Fold this protein.
Amino acid sequence: MEKSPKVIAIVPAFNEESNIVSAVEDLRACAPQVDYVVVNDGSRDATADICREKGYPMIDLPVNLGLAGAFQAGMRYAVEHGYDYALQFDADGQHSAAFVGNLVDAACERGANVVIGSRFAAVKKPVSARMAGSMLISAMIFATTGKRIQDPTSGMRLFDSSMMRLLANEPDLGPEPDTLALLMRRGAKVAEVQVQM
């Protein structure tokens, strides 16, 4: 029987006292096979206190580094602890842990280095002013890589160990759509899996 991959969800949190419990409990209930770590990004509210009280694994950053810094701290933790995959998972409740297994399955089955939890993999992107930016980013990624990404702004992404090492150590690579294009140009295979947010 094949060994299950070792997966961790990285949950960057800045002033998320009202959401952190529901986000973590969603992971614990819907993806119990996945470890998690909250990266408290210098929150000025009770986020860290709640995590300590609940016994949630936490990296407690003394100052606010922003999403890129918190994400990189989480990636370093994942690399140091020998994980096969790391999932970027928002603390604000936007992402649903019910889809985590689908992302991991897609990474294993398709040999993808990055799997995006996509709102538009199987659903047509609505035409709206809000989606205009996403469409523009998709067009830019296609222009620079020749590959189509339907939901480049999704923050729910799974990275394999090769991507984790890059993201943990290169200061110019953050959790942004332009990083996707750069990784693809370096040969990373990116897949999308339909999720609901």
In short: The first strand starts at residue 7 and ends at 13.
